[in-house]
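Recap from last week: sequence in, structure out.
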Amino acid sequence: MDQPSRSAGTVRPGGRTARVRAAVLEATQDELVERGFHGLTMDQVAARAGVGKTTVYRRWGSTPGLVADLMNELANQSADHADTGSVEEDLRANALAVLDALNDGRLGVTFQAVIAAATSDEQAAQALRGFYLRRIEEWAKVVDLAVRRGELPEGTDGGEVIRAVSAPLYYRLVVTREPVTRVVAEQSVARTLAAARAGAFVVAAPPG
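Predicted structure tokens:
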């Protein structure tokens, strides 16, 4: 799936409320990068953002609340799916976007911090799940387009194809701690595409 810009602190129109939210979310991301989830505190985020502690506590309530809003904003900033006219090129664009994000010194560390938090905090887990479900849904559209063009079998599950493309990259990042390289990304695309063309991701019709 495609990934968002490196920072969640982009200021959008909307006056002071929008500016405060942007500052707080950027501060949250900074703190996650520097201290990790378990080092994240409401007071430190408020100080870094230059806003009152009461504002942060009132609006976000807790550090998981900050992380949830951060992930929502990162999802909002993410680009739409590719549409090159070729499923291979679309999946490659997806894999390379994931690769670029995971190897980025800011965004990659943000994801690692939230993934770690998700193992012990349900609200962080929900925030992470929500982010990826939105991105999977967006990129699954390239598979639907490929099915319509006759590149993939009818009934191919787009979400499962997108998961299969990025899974080896995340496995190396989080589990084996191996380098996540372009070679890995390209191999993942080739293997996933071969499996998809062979019908491995076709969803069986419900009986009756």
